[in-house]
């Protein structure tokens, strides 16, 4: 799956992004800019070589801080990206329309990078650097990576022009959202917290009419200081409307909170979905 993900990322880069002078963020973006700027006399310093060389120090520190399994998976992914990029290098571009290249290039790139991350690797050392630096700086990994990418896309604006830099930001955003979808899966679930005076009836209805298990938590009202039973349940997004109708049918005064969940583990829940 890491090989497949790296190959998809390479396909996106060579057949959608590069022909339209659009880049991604991070090390991949820096490698694409340098590949464009370096003269032909140093042709050996192409994208494939640059992406391996620039990621090398981050892989070393990743091994020290995160572990050898992650490092080996990432090295395999990065080398696969470099080899696949060379294979696709002489192929004809899928499109020369910037909007199409932005949307479909971002989607394919996001799927590729997402597959690599989901299976324990990485194609970009900036996130590893972010993990290491945030231990010493008062920033999150996301904030650190964003700061790096502001520099990358600003540089792209000087090299390729402002419009291409804006297309690049759009590509990065589409890829970022697609990566989330691939990592979290397509079975979107919602966590619900229900506060009701008729908690027994509500819990039984969720169990027998919706087919979902519940967990009863003990809470205390902040205003009344009265002890209350709180129901916790996880449902699919398609079941949210049915859950609300069921709860309000029993208790019109019930309080419901619905939250997005990133991942649900548990054979019983998955078997209930399928």
Short recap of the structure:
This protein is an alpha+beta fold and about 270 residues long. The protein contains eleven helices and four strands, in the order H-H-H-H-H-H-H-H-E-H-E-E-H-E-H. Helices cover about 60% and strands about 10% of the residues.
Structure write-up:
The protein is α+β, with helices and mostly antiparallel strands and 274 residues long. The chain folds into two domains: 2-184, no CATH class; 189-273, Alpha-Beta Plaits (2-Layer Sandwich), CATH 3.30.70.120. Helices cover 62% and strands 11% of the residues. The chain has eleven helices and four strands. The chain has a four-stranded antiparallel sheet.
Architecture blueprint of SSEs:
Blueprint: H1 2-17, H2 26-37, H3 47-65, H4 68-88, H5 98-118, H6 125-133, H7 141-160, H8 162-184, E1 189-195, H9 199-210, E2 215-220, E3 227-236, H10 240-250, E4 255-261, H11 267-273
Antiparallel strand pairs: 1-3, 1-4, 2-3
Helix pairs in contact: 1-4, 1-5, 2-3, 2-7, 3-4, 3-6, 5-8, 6-7, 7-8, 9-10
Q: Quick one: overall form?
A: elongated
Fraction of helical residues: 55-70%
Average pLDDT over all residues: 84
**Terminal CA distance:** 23 Å
The low-confidence runs, each spanning 5 or more residues with pLDDT under 50, are none
Number of strands: 4
Strand content: 5-15%
* Spatial order of strands in the largest sheet: 2-3-1-4
Radius of gyration: 24 Å
Q: Major sheet, described briefly? A: 4 strands, antiparallel
Structural class: alpha+beta
Tally of individual helices:
11
Order of helices and strands: HHHHHHHHEHEEHEH
Number of domains: 2
